[in-house]
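idk why but the lab printer keeps eating my pages so im just putting this in chat instead. protein + nicotinamide-adenine-dinucleotide:
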Amino acid sequence: MNDIVKFGIIGAGAVWRFHKLGANNHPITRFVSAYDINEKKLKNVAKYSKLEPYSNLDDFFKSDIDAVLILVPHYLHKDMVVAAAEAGKHILCEKPMAPTLEECDKMIAATKKAGVKFMIAENHRFLPAHQFIKDALDKGFIGDVFLGRTYEGAYAISQFFNPVDWSFTYDKGGGGVVADQGVHKFTMLNWFLGEVDSAQCWLSKALNSPSNKGEDTAIVLLHYKCGAIITVDISSSTVHPLTNRTELHGTKGTILEDHSWENPVQIFSSHPDAEVKGEFYSPSVAVEHGPFPDYYKISMGYEDAYFAECILKDKKPEFTPEEAKKGVAVVLLSYLSAKNGRMTSMEELMKIYKKEGTKSILEGLEAVTQKNHVNLKWE
Ligand SMILES: NC(=O)c1ccc[n+]([C@@H]2O[C@H](COP(=O)([O-])OP(=O)(O)OC[C@H]3O[C@@H](n4cnc5c(N)ncnc54)[C@H](O)[C@@H]3O)[C@@H](O)[C@H]2O)c1
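predcted complex ->
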C-alpha cells in the first residue's frame, strides 16, 4: 500500500499557502499539481510551490493525482466537486460547503455515486485546542453546557473595498461574514453541542463597502436543542490580527479558549479528574498551538493529513458532508432570521428548503443590513 496521497489543488489563491505550510509537517500529504484559471497565479504556484501547472481541467484530472483540494470561491464549490467526483478523484473542499442546501445535496449525491471520499476542509474541526475542548466536554469536565459565546474577528478591509474580489459578495460568496467566518463557529458549536433549534441574527456594515458586499459584522444568538444558549460574534472589520475566542459554561465548570494565547485553553472544573481545583488552570500536557498564522498551519496540516489517512486506510471521514451541510443550514437560518427580524426556528428554514429552495434566502439581505458606517469615523 502507498504511504502518501498525491493531491492536486484547484485554485491557487490566498488559502493555499496555509495548506502548503501545514503539509510540511505531514509527509503523508503530497501536493503535486495545480489548476487555476488565472495564468499568473498558476505560474507563481508552479515556481514557488513546485506544483505541475494545468490550465485545462480535464488534463489536470488525467494527471497522476489521487485526490483534489478545492480552493475556489464558494459559488464554484458545487460544480468543482461534481466534476472531480465524475473524474473519480477523492475530494477535500474548503468551507463553507456551498451557499445553499441544494448545492450541498448535489455534492453529496455526486460523491456517493462516484464512490469517492469527500470531506469539507473545516480546519476548526482539526485544531488541537478544539479537539481538547471536545474531549473535555465528552469526559464531563464542565458538565452540561447551558451558556456560551464565541468570536472570530479579522481585519479584511482590502477584500471588502475591492468590488471585483469575490470574497464576502452576495452572488459569489453566498453572503458576508456569517457565511464566510460564521460557518467555522457554527460547525464547531454543532460538534460540541448537537443541533440548533432556533436563531436570531443582526447584520451590520461597519465599513462603507460596495453594495455587492455583504455584512462585515454580525451577532447570532443560537438556541441549541440541548437547551444551551450561545452568542456568536463575527467581524472582519475588527482592528487586530485574526483571532478566535470561545467560552463555554456548564454545570461543573467553565472552559475558556483564545487563539491569541500561546497556551490556548483554560479550565475551571469541579470534576474529580481536574488537574487543579478551585482555580482556572491550563492543561499540563501542552495543546499544540500558536497565534495566527500558526493555528491555520497546524489545523490545516492535521485536516489534510487526516483526509489522506482516510484514503489510505479506506476509512469514512468522521467529519461527514452531512455535518458540514448542517453548518451551512445555520448560516441560512441566521440570514433568514435577519430578514424576518425575529427569532426563527430551524423548522421554518426546513419548510423553505422543501418548498421554494434556500437560494431565495440569500436575496434581499442588503436591505436588512444595518449601515452602521454612517456613525463611525475610520480616518
Ligand atoms: N479554512 C480557512 O480558515 C480559510 C481561510 C481562507 C479561505 N478559505 C476558503 O478557501 C477558499 C478559497 O479562498 P481564498 O481566500 O484562497 O480565495 P482567493 O480568491 O485568494 O483564491 C481563489 C482562487 O480560485 C481561482 N479560481 C477562480 N475561479 C476559478 C475557476 N473557475 N477555476 C479554477 N480556479 C478558479 C482564482 O484564480 C484564485 O486563484 C474559499 O472557500 C474560502 O472560504 C478558508
